[in-house]
Design a protein that fits this description.
Blueprint (H helix, E strand, L loop, with lengths): L1 E3 L2 E11 L2 E9 L5 H5 L6 E6 L1 H14 L4 E6 L9 H13 L7 E6 L1 H13 L5 E6 L2 H7 L4 E6 L2 E8 L4 E5 L8 H18 L1 H15 L3 H21 L14 H10 L7 H18 L5 H13 L11 H11 L2 E2 L2 E9 L2 E8 H11 L1
Parallel strand pairs: 3-10, 4-5, 4-6, 6-7, 7-10
Antiparallel strand pairs: 1-2, 2-3, 8-9, 11-12, 12-13
Bound molecules: glycine (GLY).
């Protein structure tokens, strides 16, 4: 535990890769801690990428903490539909307009959309500059901000354009969640539950016990949950930074989820809500194929329900659903590669026939 003034770092988890080491600080009141920021800013220039709503709450303090730097601010519009090359281009233009050098540091103050675009801008500007992630949503704190995946969407699919580029550090501050709307907070719980399902049966059981406290945003329970997720994410990314093997398991529920997001043009469902439905369908499919038990698939459904997820069930017809899933994944011999569960706490990659998937979809669509 490291503390100064009102800032407290509860845990530091380091993502050590071959040529870079990225500390992930988890704490309270640390997002605008000058000491922490200074330790990770190299040059004399910073550009904060954020959104109006977040800026209202947090930008003043951050700007004060950055008083000694040339600090430029750029605002992105809100929503997954704006995770585009156009917004990325605006950051590029502004960096050039403000004469940012190679030693500049970009700071992503926001959720996954801000983090992904900022990271991609940092990956490309002058062939790669530093950036810092300050995730302000639960989903970004437990997943998107960690591991260096950056990019933008294309009309034909999510994250189709991007790069791997690790941040200098991730500053995860639970106090910034105080202003997160409950719907977005709940969407973040989906990714927390995901870690229990793919990597940690004990954590899943712990979540079953603590879901009410998490929903009530109990600070100690939240810190413990986020810390466990960071620990698992780091452990997985360390083994497979470029997502060609074990890291694929983080996509549990995502092929179903991406199809739902695409159908809604990224507008009707939040990412976490779509992933929650996707995880339910993947769990049902795992039970249908006799991997997990029906009882376990019911436990999963119950936890997702108790978390307040699965309330926005907007299913397209099964045939449309399957067509979109085909777009997201390569189809080989009528089979799709999916992440399923062997047990609660263990995920694996397998190929499943479209017919088997169709049967599960038809039951729910
Ligand atoms: N969000 C999935 C990953 O980082 O691989």
């Amino acid at each position: 535990l490291v503390a100064w003034k009102k800032s407290v770092i509860h845990t530091t988890t380091t993502l050590d890769l071959a040529n870079q080491s990225c500390p992930i600080y988890l704490g309270t009141n640390i997002y605008a801690a000058t000491k922490l920021l200074r330790a990770h800013i190299v040059g004399h220039q910073v550009m904060v990428v954020t959104q109006e709503k977040i800026a209202e709450w947090y930008l003043d303090s951050l700007r004060k903490a950055l008083a000694e730097y040339q600090c430029d601010i750029i605002f992105l519009p809100e929503g997954e539909q704006y995770k585009t090359l156009l917004q990325w281009q605006k950051i590029m233009d502004y960096l050039l307009e403000k004469n940012h050098e190679r030693a500049t540091t970009l700071i992503a103050l926001g959720g996954g959309v801000v983090g992904d675009i900022t990271g991609f801008a940092a990956a490309c500007y002058q062939r790669g500059v530093n950036y810092i992630q300050i995730p302000t949503t639960l989903i970004a704190q437990v997943d998107a901000a960690i591991g260096g995946k950056t990019g933008v969407n294309h009309a034909s699919g999510k994250n189709m354009i991007g790069a791997f580029h690790q941040p200098q550090c991730v500053i995860t501050d639970i106090t910034v969640l105080d202003t997160l709307p409950q719907r977005e907070y709940i969407a973040g719980l989906a990714e927390i539950i995901k870690y229990g399902l793919i990597a940690d049966a004990k954590f899943f059981a712990w979540l079953e016990q603590h879901i009410a406290a998490l929903l009530a945003r109990d600070k100690n329970v939240l810190l413990q949950a986020i810390h466990t997720c960071i620990h698992h994410k780091v452990a997985i990314v360390k083994q497979d930074a470029h997502d060609i093997g074990i890291r694929n398991i983080l996509n549990f529920g995502h092929t179903f989820g991406h199809a739902l997001e695409t159908i809604g043009s990224y507008e009707s469902l939040l990412h976490g809500e779509a992933v929650a439905i996707g995880m339910l369908l993947a769990a049902k499919l795992s039970a249908r194929l006799n991997w997990i038990t029906v009882t376990d698939s019911e436990r999963i459904e119950q936890l997702l329900c108790a978390a307040g997820l699965l309330q926005t069930l907007e299913f397209p017809p099964a045939a449309d659903f399957l067509r979109l899933m085909r777009q997201d994944k390569k189809v080989l011999g009528g089979k799709l590669n999916l992440i399923l569960l062997k047990t609660i706490g263990q995920a694996f990659k397998t190929s499943v026939t479209e017919q088997e998937i169709g049967l599960v979809l038809e039951k729910y669509c």
